[in-house]
Design a protein that fits this description.
Elements: E1 17-25, E2 36-38, E3 46-49, E4 64-68, E5 71-74, E6 88-92, E7 98-102, E8 108-110, E9 113-114, E10 117-120, E11 125-128, E12 132-140, H1 170-183, E13 189-192, H2 199-209, E14 217-221, H3 230-235, H4 251-255, E15 260-264, H5 271-276, H6 278-281, E16 286-287, E17 296-297, E18 301-306, H7 315-318, E19 323-326, H8 337-351, H9 353-359, E20 360-362, E21 368-370, H10 374-382, H11 389-402, H12 436-445, H13 450-457, H14 462-472
Helix pairs in contact: 1-2, 8-9, 8-11, 13-14
Amino acid sequence: MLPPDEPERTEPTSPPMEWALVVIWCDAEPERLGEVMAMPKGQSTVAELGRGPGHPSGPPRLEPVRPRPGVDEPALPLGLRGVSRSQLRLRRRSAGGLAVENIGRCALLVNGAVQREANVGAGDVLELRQQIAWLCVRRPRPLPPVRDFPMARHLRFGHADALHLVGESPAAWELRERIAFSSAREGHVLVLGESGTGKELAARGIHVLSNRGRNRLVSRSAATLPEGLIDAELFGNAANYPNPGMKERPGLIGQADGGTLFLDEIGELPGPLQTHLLRVLDSDGEYQRLGEAKSRRSNLRFVAATNRPLTDLKDDFGARFPLRLRVPSLDERREDIPLLARHLLLGIAREDSTLRERFFDTTTEGVSTPRLDPALITALVRHDYSLNIRELLAALWSALASSTGDRILLTPEVEIAAPETDEREQSYVKPDQLDPAAVQAVLDANDGMQEKAWRELGLKNRFVLIRYIRKHGLVVKRSE
């Protein structure tokens, strides 16, 4: 028997979305990583999943596909011998999510616990024991077509593209589109996102795809500019200024003439220094080196990045960035985490032959692939991230260091856990438990200081509050 249904609740119908299972682990067929098995289109609410093709007279089948923008490319049927031909029966639930019943011989685990039947929704992990694991998601089908990204048809599924971006999720493809759109325009760009999401990678992509791509990309973190020397670092100085014998320096702005200047952590730049940049950010690019009376002009494009709220930038400074894009967090693209983990591990293997020989297999196509335990992948995709890629990489290194066999395991030493198994998480308030009006009141009471507000609300960290503010369109007033 499938699990009982629940009362119907209203869900958004646009854009068209469908419940699906995304492959996050498959030891025998590692090339399946990222493939999607979506509920069939049409009126049928019940479908089956299993090994090999479905029977023509049988129920609709969840068939694996490789989603690309505008089209679902068919993949080979499952060939796993440990999986029954009719293994799982799934039903769309009017209350949302899927009802799953195990009708085959392979044990079903839901979030690590053996189940015969279960109701699952976004973020739940289904594993056919030691055969294959999926993440339950809701995603558009097919993916929206691309308009601007020039390399969409030439990417190897599941692997890094020419910009070194990894991911097949809707969020990953939207990011590629926004990068390509921004690169084709001449306006300055502000890249937003949490710490560790890959804002610098997005900035490099904007430069590479632009008509400045053959010229220089000058990169610097604003947080590393020495206090008292920021003007000199940015604008440069004349010879013998401020001291005799001082060499002439072009500054970051002069170095980036004809190319792109990328300043990370722009929110760390003091307000007066933001004001100093206003003239060079205008269309004529005018600036002055220290010690010079004449003005110079730099034909540069400015790309800045910050993990701070827009309200932390001066209004007139932020207005100089007409193009903006946001890099999604790992929490927003969980189905990409196994692909990112593989990519990071392959990078480690290229530099470390000892780890490569110990933890990696080579497929018949000559491709190296890491041997990962499904429990580790389950923990990685269900973890709530604060530092995103940095945190993921640290967890992988911890697993490599603490695994004693030839497989990368989830050991007690690995500093990552699923939210339900982390006792510390129980003390945090979940965002969906909060009323937007109450959150707005706390923000107002703290004069828009989010560092105080998220602690008072009992949230896990500042980034949870930032996402809540964005989702509900709250106003953050900056104290003068």
